[in-house]
What we know:
Blueprint: H1 4-9, E1 18-22, E2 28-32, H2 35-51, E3 55-65, E4 68-78, H3 79-85, E5 97-101, H4 108-120, E6 125-129, E7 135-139, E8 142-144
Parallel strand pairs: 5-6
Antiparallel strand pairs: 1-2, 3-4, 4-5, 6-7, 7-8
Amino acid sequence: xxxxxxxxxxxxxxxxxxxxxxxxxxxxxxxxxxxxxxxxxxxxxxxxxxxxxxxxxxxxxxxxxxxxxxxxxxxxxxxxxxxxxxxxxxxxxxxxxxxxxxxxxxxxxxxxxxxxxxxxxxxxxxxxxxxxxxxxxxxxxxxxxxxxxxxxxxxxxxxxx
Length: 161
């Protein structure tokens, strides 16, 4: 079975234009991302950095889940989380906020599965940004009208393109 450390060391998997994850059987799963996906990823990270203090923004945050290593497009981890997990790759727990940005190649069930997996690993909220920039917020209680952790975060990301 392939482990995350093996993926990180494998030179043939470096510099691929895809996000790499592992499924529960240790198989590599690659998801191609659009440029729009990358722009939303940057915008969300910038906004989180402006609105939250006492933590760190992480792009491509790897998390060990019950279904293998999943990689949140953006995450926010508190200083307390980082103190406990800083040297882990992948993290054994999910940071407080995990964000998935939908790509054309994502199936809706895949996103739903990731929401469940991140919450099960300790995320307090999981955010999903669709291809039009609409952001939905989910916690253990279900879908939220807005984030409870970042009250001023917009429900629509507007790209300056």
